């Protein structure tokens, strides 16, 4: 690592700090960068937010291994913790960049994993999004930032973000849960007895069900810590990565939201029937 690459006290590399300095509002040379499409950019502006700049966080992480019993369904805790911590590092660094810009939030966040060819156990976790600043305070005052006083994060599209604000809700943060799970191997005689038959495999059903429930419950716990009313845009993904067919990561992610007003409610749409003769 060169001197220019060294992280500052904020955890943001020095080169990134210089890039962010040119994007701070009020600078004579300030200009924003964004990965939003043209339509998304216009809708974010229509929702009352001004893009400040593209922010990112990265973590190259060594994902270890864990020995488990082949004939037993079980979570691999060491791997679950590694996959969660690596993503959290990337997200935290992205939020630190947004904080340096004085942003109220980050929209259009993408959270990706890329395994590196120079090491089978090395993966880069990358978080990228567009930092935005609100043109006005929320209707009941206060801040658009979340309860941890950090910029909100959202992986909603520009269209969904606009719709959320119009409906009277605000994003609090991206919440996630992960579970790396090993599905038990079938014995040879059991596998042979199933040949040519339509039959449920209970150990597979139970294992996959348990793994998804663990990921979902952890995502919900993060939303509760943000005092969210709910989670929108939830996606539940299964990743095999490089562990083999019997070990899979289940990853749940979504955007936690809150109403902008304590007495907020969404009006019930009225059904209008066409007039008929007679």
From TrEMBL:
Gene3D superfamilies: Hypothetical protein apc22750. Chain B. It comes from the Bacteria. Pfam families: YbjQ_1. InterPro entries: UPF0145_dom_sf, UPF0145_YbjQ-like. Belongs to the UPF0145 family. This is Heavy metal-binding domain-containing protein.
């Amino acid at each position: 690592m060169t001197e220019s690459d060294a992280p500052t006290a904020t955890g943001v590399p020095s080169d990134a700090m210089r890039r962010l300095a040119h994007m701070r509002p009020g600078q004579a040379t300030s200009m924003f960068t964004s990965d939003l499409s043209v339509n998304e950019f216009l809708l974010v502006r229509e929702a009352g937010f001004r893009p400040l700049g593209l922010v990112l966080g990265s973590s190259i992480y060594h994902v270890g291994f864990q020995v488990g019993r082949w004939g037993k369904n079980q979570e691999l805790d060491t791997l679950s913790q590694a996959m969660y911590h690596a993503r959290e590092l990337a997200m935290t660094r992205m939020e630190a960049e947004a904080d340096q810009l004085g942003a109220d939030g980050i929209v259009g966040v993408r959270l990706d994993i890329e395994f590196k060819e120079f090491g089978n156990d090395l993966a880069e976790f990358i978080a990228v999004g567009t930092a935005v600043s609100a043109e006005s305070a929320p209707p009941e005052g206060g801040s658009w930032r979340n309860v941890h006083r950090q910029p909100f994060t959202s992986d909603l599209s520009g269209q969904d973000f606009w719709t959320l604000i119009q409906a009277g809700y605000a994003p609090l943060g991206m919440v996630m849960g992960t579970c790396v799970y090993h599905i038990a191997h079938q014995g040879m005689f059991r596998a042979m007895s199933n040949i040519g038959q339509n039959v449920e495999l209970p150990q597979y059903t139970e294992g996959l069900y348990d793994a998804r429930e663990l990921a979902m419950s952890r995502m919900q716990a993060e939303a509760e810590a943000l005092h969210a009313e709910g989670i929108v845009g939830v996606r539940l993904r299964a990743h095999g990565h490089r562990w083999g067919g019997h070990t899979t990561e289940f990853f749940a992610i979504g955007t936690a939201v809150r109403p902008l007003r304590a007495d907020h409610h969404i009006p019930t749409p009225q059904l209008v029937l066409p007039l008929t003769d007679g």
